[in-house]
Design brief:
heterodimer; A: mainly beta; seven-stranded mixed sheet; four-stranded antiparallel sheet; 11 strands; B: about 110 residues
Chain lengths: ~110, ~110
C-alpha cells in the first residue's frame, strides 16, 4: 500500500496564479483532511471531508477550495495564490475504529508564493 | 482548540530517557490520548495511544495519571533521530466528524 500520496512535492507560484494540490489514499478511509504548517508552527486544519461527497471548513479555510472527487481523492485548490499561503501542505486520511481514530499523513507539498 | 497543553521545547541527552509531559484536563471519560511526532517537516507519524492504563510499544511508553488529566510520553533511550516535534492530541468531535486537532507540540532536541 502506498498510504497517502501527494503531488506535487514542491511548487513555486506567482501571486495571483492558481493551482490544485492532489491527494490520494489507498486505505479505503472515509475521512480526509488538508492541513497547512507554517515555519515553527503546528498543523492547522484547512478543510476536511468526513465522507465522499461531503466537505467542511476547518480552522483556516479562506483562500482555498476543496473537492472530494471520490473516496480515494481529495484535492485542494488555490484560486488566486497569495504570499501568505506560502506553507507546507499536508493531506491526511483517517480510520475510526470504535473509539480509536487512526490518522495517516502524506509527505507534504512545499508551496512558495512569490 | 487543541484541548492539550505541552511545553514548547525540551532537551535530552542521547541515551537518556526523554519524558514529555502533556496536560489534558478537559478530557472526557472515553477519549483516548494520542501521541504523534513530526521529524523535520515530514508528515506526522503515529507513536502511541492510551485511555486509562499505561501503554508500551516498540517506540515509546505512555503513562497516564489516574485522574486522566495528564500524561507523559517516555522515550526510554533517546537517540539523535528522535529529535522531532511531539504532539499530544485528544480527539475532537466537530461538525459531525471526528478529528485530531494538532497544537504546536513540544520540540524535543536530543543532544550528543
Amino acid at each position: 500500500n502506498a498510504g497517502v500520496t501527494q503531488t506535487p512535492k514542491f511548487q513555486v507560484l506567482k501571486t495571483g496564479q492558481s493551482m490544485t494540490l492532489q491527494c490520494a489514499q489507498d486505505m479505503n478511509h472515509n475521512s480526509m483532511y488538508w492541513y497547512r504548517q507554517d515555519p515553527g508552527m503546528g498543523l492547522r486544519l484547512i478543510y476536511y471531508s468526513a465522507s465522499e461527497g461531503t466537505t467542511d471548513k476547518g480552522e483556516v479555510p479562506n483562500g482555498y477550495n476543496v473537492s472530494r472527487l471520490n473516496k480515494r481523492e481529495f484535492s485542494l485548490r488555490l484560486e488566486s495564490a497569495a504570499p501568505s499561503q506560502t506553507s507546507v501542505y499536508f493531506c491526511a486520511s483517517s480510520l475510526l475504529a470504535g473509539e480509536l481514530l487512526w490518522q495517516y499523513f502524506g509527505p507534504g507539498t512545499r508551496l512558495t508564493v512569490t | 482548540d487543541a484541548k492539550t497543553t505541552q511545553p514548547p521545547s525540551m532537551d535530552c541527552a542521547e541515551g537518556r530517557a526523554a519524558n514529555l509531559p502533556c496536560n489534558h484536563s478537559t478530557i472526557s471519560g472515553n477519549e483516548y490520548v494520542y501521541w504523534y511526532r513530526q521529524i523535520h517537516s515530514q508528515g506526522p507519524q503515529y507513536i502511541i495511544h492510551g485511555l486509562k492504563n499505561n501503554e508500551t510499544n516498540e517506540m515509546a511508553s505512555l503513562i497516564i495519571t489516574e485522574d486522566r488529566k495528564s500524561s507523559t510520553l517516555i522515550l526510554p533511550h533517546a537517540t539523535l533521530r528522535d529529535t522531532a516535534v511531539y504532539y499530544c492530541i485528544v480527539r475532537v468531535f466537530q461538525g459531525g466528524s471526528e478529528k485530531l486537532v494538532f497544537g504546536k507540540g513540544t520540540k524535543l532536541t536530543v543532544n550528543p
